[in-house]
Amino acid sequence: MRKKTLSFATATILLLFTSSGGAQQTNPDALEQAEWGTFQLDLQRAMQSTDVEKKRDAAIEALAIEPKLRNWTAPLPRPEVRAELQLLVATANVDRTKGDHSRDLETAIVYAQSSLQFFTRQEFPQLWAAAKEVLGSAYAQRIEGDKAANIETSIGAVNEALSVFTQEAFPAEWASSQTLLAM
């Protein structure tokens, strides 16, 4: 089980929300303000919790609220926050020890792939590589589908992650990816 965090991105989002007092409310609508408050609390719980279940549940709750927020006033673009939450859910689902492991892995694959629609190698190389590593881990453990195809997909995803996670630049991530390849 991996215990890796996405510290640089999650810390940035959390810092921007908490240091500025959260998103500034320009809409006097009470429901909108309540949704922002709930979103911020879920986001904070998702990023700060060390418990996989709490992290996963909070990220899922934040993703459910995010489309309801009409006036996006957060310091980071909405798609970036959404993709970060998707990657948190994917990572937590791979790391989960409770629940239906097969279903969790399938969910992790969907969320990791969704995050890759925003996290490109060119604009967000570290998050792109983290998502590729999560995909590699999910496919390595995958129960559904053809075992050989899953392993091939896993190796491909991890090798892509290693194009960013070099031993020199990211030794911990490199080691984690190497461990996945050895499985």
Low-pLDDT windows of residues:
1-8, 18-28
Output the radius of gyration. 17 Å
Mean pLDDT: 87
- Helix-strand makeup class: mainly alpha
- Give the strand tally: 0
CATH domain topology: Serine Threonine Protein Phosphatase 5, Tetratricopeptide repeat
How many helix segments?
Answer: 8
User: Helix and strand succession?
Assistant: HHHHHHHH
CATH architecture: Alpha Horseshoe
Write a brief caption for the model.
This protein is mainly alpha-helical. About 70% of the residues lie in helices and about 0% in strands.
Overview of the molecule:
The protein has helices at residues 7-19, 30-48, 52-65, 78-95, 101-115, 125-141, 147-162, 171-182. It has 183 residues and is mostly helical. It starts with 6 loop residues before the first helix and ends with a helix. The chain has 8 helices and no strands. Mean pLDDT is 87; it is low at 1-8 and 18-28.
